[in-house]
């Protein structure tokens, strides 16, 4: 069974291109997942399965631009895998119009139940497994490229300051905010390597994030290290680590695509933009 959530949109969700910002999609996924797990099954009575979990991994594929509308956007969510201490939720963000489904994004989230008082993961209970089984639609695991383990010598550095509003009720930075930190570091990096060039439009095609440790609120900044792992004719991949010294809190890979706002299609940028990306290309 799939759960369908009707997610209201906000004008503040839009970016400079008039599309829903890639970070906001992850917020939509969170709303849909919590609605599903707080609405159905015996575990919904306690709320622990909806709120007493941490995100271990996000995979988000952006398929088409989503523009603002007063009509809510629909999100289907279901479970693709149940393990001893983790479960995976899949999503599809779409509108049904004229008898056709217009899909804007597909995603998966790996979650683990968590004992916040002891700061440790735990196993799923029988009641929780029973609840998740209602939504189970197993699928074949897709191959995943290895995430970056360490940063190369030539990287871009961005100091990220955690805001108090970034922190959830458990004292951890909310998983959605990691996408914001990656976005801020990416913008700072491209602004530096394209200094003096005219602004260029880009969209995010894919974002994968592995969450390793919780980030906590503090006055000192954390470090985001970013570099380019691939450069194509119209797209590139940027790898990042969110860290504090040798402690890594998250690893990420973001695929960006150069975008023509007039045709609403990908485009080949002038060579200086690709050259700038190659200057941070890891060996």
Automatic annotation (TrEMBL):
Domain of life: Bacteria
Descriptive protein name: Acyl-CoA thioesterase
Organism, as annotated: Nocardioides aquiterrae
């Amino acid at each position: 069974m799939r759960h369908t959530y009707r997610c209201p949109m906000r004008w503040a969700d839009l970016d400079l291109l008039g599309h829903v910002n890639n970070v906001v999609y992850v917020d939509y996924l969170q709303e849909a997942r919590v609605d599903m797990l707080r609405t159905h099954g015996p575990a919904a009575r306690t709320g622990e399965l909806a709120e007493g979990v941490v995100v271990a991994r996000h995979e988000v594929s952006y398929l088409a631009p989503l523009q603002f509308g007063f009509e809510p956007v629909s999100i289907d969510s279901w479970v693709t895998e149940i393990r001893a201490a983790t479960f995976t939720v899949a999503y599809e963000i779409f509108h049904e119009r004229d008898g056709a489904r217009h899909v804007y994004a597909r995603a998966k989230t790996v979650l683990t139940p968590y004992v916040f008082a002891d700061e440790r993961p735990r196993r799923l209970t029988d009641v929780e497994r029973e609840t998740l089984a209602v939504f189970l639609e197993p699928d074949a695991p897709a191959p995943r490229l290895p995430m970056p383990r360490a940063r190369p010598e030539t990287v871009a550095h961005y100091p990220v300051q955690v805001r108090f509003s970034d922190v959830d009720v458990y004292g951890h930075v909310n998983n959605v905010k990691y996408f914001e930190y990656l976005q801020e570091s990416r913008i700072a990096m491209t602004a530096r390597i394209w200094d003096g060039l005219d602004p260029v439009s880009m969209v995010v095609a894919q974002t994968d994030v592995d969450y390793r440790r919780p980030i906590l609120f503090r006055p000192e900044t954390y470090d985001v290290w970013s570099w380019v792992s691939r450069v194509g004719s119209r797209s590139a991949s940027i790898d990042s680590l969110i860290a504090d010294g040798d402690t890594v809190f998250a690893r990420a890979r973001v695929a960006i695509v150069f975008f023509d706002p007039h045709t609403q299609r990908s485009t080949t940028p002038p060579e200086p933009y690709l050259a700038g990306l190659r200057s941070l290309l890891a060996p």
